[in-house]
Specification:
heterodimer, A: 565 residues, alpha+beta, Alpha-Beta Plaits, Beta-lactamase, five-stranded antiparallel beta sheet, four-stranded antiparallel beta sheet, 24 strands, 22% strand, B: 198 residues, 5 helices
Chain lengths: 565, 198
């Protein structure tokens, strides 16, 4: 009797065994594994974007998103919504709707909340017995300085970088996510259970040559200038004369990198690199220094400047009315005479000016790592007419971008050697495969050291109180060499000069031992020229830069080149 | 082996007594020693129990270590997040905009061009000058409202009682511009001129 009972029980067990092991063992094994197996992503931390001193322009913070399960939150939705509004400053009405969303089990409440804050909120919610709120990983990108260098740094969209250095160097910055698989019991890892970890590879930092404080000051001076003169936009470049490193590259209007969608799309890029404009009289520096390098003229070359100059079918005039005046070459530059420059440029043989301008870097990208850089527009040598050469000699009929022109002027500051500008420390590869950075800096001699020195002496006369056109650009106590520019601008709609002007000032200091080159361009101010609009901005930025880097005045006597004869 | 038995034969010595004596072999009495069972059983049980308990303890300690590891990992994550948060706050405190704002509130102004004293010769290089208080606008002008939100004032000319009506609409127009211009008169004038151009 007993045996029968035992046999029956055992056969029931046996049947169950066959069912479990024989019919579909794999699905049961999978179910068992799924019960305790956890798979988590280990996100890589995105590299920071730093200034030259290691201060952050963009940094990554561990962030969480707060997600609600409406099935559980609907009951206490108003209370939870009020709580979340207080803690996270989310919109009350929208949150309330999400918490009550029917048929949904997953609703975003807040995204990119710093982890510390999110955890505190969830802990507080649990204490208040609110159910159905939980967190998920959601990395947070912070731009602690807001609009400072935003045009260069760019910003991240929801899932991917959308602009600027963030996008160009995404490969380096983003790193590689890892993952972990392990078994858990009661929320704890089971020792000796399955456990595989692939460590994440964090992104690498990107260090720029930008000096954060100087960049900030430059942007504020630029904004003040643009707004004071009712201009459309402006750009400013501060460059280390010897190394070509860009200490500041400012654009206005700009945007807050933390809230890029609040600004017009047109302001999100770098106008200094992406827009072309005609440089105007600043370019005369390049023309005249080339002439001196060829030995065709000297700063004391005497030129008779008529009131107007008829060239073929069109007259060339100066910005100021004058009778026939007698200027030296230094005077032509100091007073920014178009006619004098054209007369001097007549000494060029065909093609020579084009060759010099090419060597100065016009018409070629600077390749500093900013997206969408324009190469400017230097007409090919073969198609130059006489009239075109005349206009190019004083800076019209050719287009440049801001950094290109700053680097060209910096050639004079650096003793006639053009040093290629750079924005990134070291060497990095862009998303287009180009290697950029300070390690790839190249130098090439454009004009002789003597020609550069002579040109600098002439440029000093520009800021002279008595003879120059831009005394407002002077920095008291320092020898400053510079040049104004007031150029007719080509309109956006018609391919013609539309009556607006771009005014600019480029210069370097100390003139006899240059350390910094500063270039300021203001587009379409209500009134004023290079000397009165861009000059004072130049002076402020240069003065601040010299102060910041503790550059003493050289204490030598300023240039006394005669301007008239 | 020298048991007391052979001594009985000592009394009568015989020939080859020693040899005979030697030849006489006796069977060693079988010694039936029974090993005590208890210690062995105790030992084995001890080993068994010890093993089981040890295994249990080992497992428990591993479990404990795992709990500790999980807790410490959590703590490390929290602390790392906190560090990042503090670093972010530090970066925000370092923001030149904030520092400039704080400096301006303290009444500090921009310095003019620097001058240097050469300590050896007491010579002054550069032009020393006193800093003067000048407005350096560090805050952006308030953004212009889009046209939808900023309709041109609707001025109604009423012949019957003109004083009251036009006075009211003038006030609102002024109020709107005044609110938006924060950077002083210049801006206000600009805004007004822009408004009038529109």
């Amino acid at each position: 009797m007993g045996f029968v009972v035992i046999a029956m029980v055992l056969s029931v067990f046996g049947a169950r065994l066959v069912q479990l092991q024989g019919v579909d063992p794999n699905s049961y094994a999978a179910m068992a594994a799924a019960e305790g197996l956890v798979e988590v992503d280990l996100p890589a931390e995105r590299g920071d974007i730093l200034d030259r001193n290691g201060k952050a322009l963009a940094d990554s913070v561990d962030g969480l998103m707060i997600v609600a399960d409406p099935l559980m939150t609907a009951e206490k939705a108003p209370e939870i919504a009020r709580f979340l509004y207080r803690e996270l400053d989310v919109d009350y009405a929208a949150t309330l709707n999400r918490l009550r969303e029917e048929g949904s089990r997953y609703e975003y409440i807040a995204r990119r909340v710093p982890a510390t804050q999110a955890n505190a909120v969830i802990a507080a919610a649990e204490k208040l017995k609110f159910k159905g709120l939980y967190t998920q990983h959601d990395p947070l990108r912070d731009y602690p300085v807001g609009d400072v260098a935003a045009n260069l740094v760019g910003f991240l969209g929801t899932d991917e970088p959308l602009a600027g250095l963030e996008r160009t160097f995404d490969d380096q910055l983003s790193g590689t996510d890892g993952s972990a698989r392990y078994e858990v019991g009661a929320g704890k890892k089971i020792p000796l259970g399955e456990n595989t970890v692939t460590d994440p590879v964090d992104g690498q930092d990107l260090q720029t040559t930008i000096d954060l404080d100087l960049q900030w000051y430059t942007q504020r001076v630029l904004r003040q200038t643009v707004q004071q003169w009712g201009a459309d936009s402006g750009l400013a470049v501060v460059m280390d004369s010897q190394t070509g490193e860009l200490l500041a590259l400012a654009d206005h209007p700009t945007f807050d990198a933390n809230h890029p969608t609040e600004s017009p799309k047109a302001d999100l890029g770098s106008r200094a690199m992406q827009d072309v404009y005609e440089p105007g009289s600043v370019e005369k520096v390049l023309t005249l220094s080339s002439l001196i390098d060829l030995g065709l003229v000297t700063p004391r070359t005497q030129i008779v400047v008529p009131p107007s100059l008829q060239r073929e079918d069109s007259p060339i005039g100066d910005w100021f009315d004058h009778g026939t005046i007698r200027l030296t070459l230094a005077g032509v530059l100091a007073k920014s005479s178009n006619i004098g420059t054209v007369l001097a440029a007549d000494h060029f043989k065909s093609g020579q000016l084009h060759e010099y301008l090419t060597r100065f870097g016009l018409g070629q990208r600077t390749a500093i790592g900013v997206r969408g850089e324009t190469e400017g527009l230097l007409p090919a040598a073969g198609v130059w007419t006489h009239q075109q050469q005349d206009r190019i000699a004083f800076g019209q009929s050719l287009s440049v971008n801001g950094v290109q022109m700053a680097a060209a002027i910096n050639t004079i500051a650096n003793g006639g050697v053009r040093v290629s500008p750079s924005l990134i420390m070291g060497s990095v590869t862009t998303d287009e495969g180009d290697v950029v950075g300070t390690d790839t800096t190249t130098e090439r001699r454009v004009i002789s050291e003597d020609a550069a020195r002579q040109t600098a002496l002439m440029m000093e006369r520009v800021v002279d109180e008595k003879v120059g056109v831009a005394p407002g650009a002077a920095v008291p106590g320092y020898r400053v060499a510079g040049k104004t520019g007031t150029a007719q601008a080509v309109g956006a709609d018609c391919a013609c000069y539309d009556g607006t002007f771009d005014v600019s000032f480029a210069g370097f200091a100390p003139a006899d031992d240059p350390r910094f080159t500063v270039y300021v361009v203001v587009k379409n101010p209500d009134t004023g020229g290079g000397g009165s609009v861009a000059g004072p901005a130049f002076s402020k930025i240069m003065s601040y830069t010299l102060k910041r880097y503790a550059v003493p005045p050289t204490g030598t006597r300023p240039s006394r080149l005669p301007v008239e004869w | 082996m020298s048991s007391p038995a052979p001594q009985r034969w000592n009394r009568v010595p015989r020939i080859a007594e020693v040899a005979v004596e030697r030849a006489r072999l006796t069977v060693v009495p079988r010694r039936r020693t029974r090993a005590a069972r208890m210690p062995f059983v105790a030992l084995v049980s001890l080993v068994l129990v010890g093993g089981v308990v040890g295994l249990l303890l080992f497992n428990t300690s591993m479990q404990q270590a795992s709990f500790a590891a999980t807790a410490l990992e959590g703590q490390s994550t929290t602390l790392a997040a906190r560090e990042q948060m503090l670093e972010m706050e530090l970066d925000e405190l370092r923001d030149p905009q904030r520092i400039a704002g704080a400096a301006q509130r303290l009444g500090m102004v921009q310095a003019c061009a620097p001058a240097f004293i050469k300590l050896g010769s007491n010579e002054v290089v550069g032009q020393p000058c006193a800093a003067v208080a000048s407005a350096f606008p560090i805050w952006p002008a308030e953004p212009k409202l889009p046209a939808d939100l900023n309709p041109p004032p609707n001025v109604v000319e009423v012949t019957a009682d003109p004083v009251v009506e036009s006075g009211v609409s003038d006030d609102t127009a002024d109020g709107a511009t005044g609110n938006r211009a924060r950077d002083g008169k210049k801006n206000q004038q600009q805004h007004q001129s822009q408004n009038s151009q529109r």
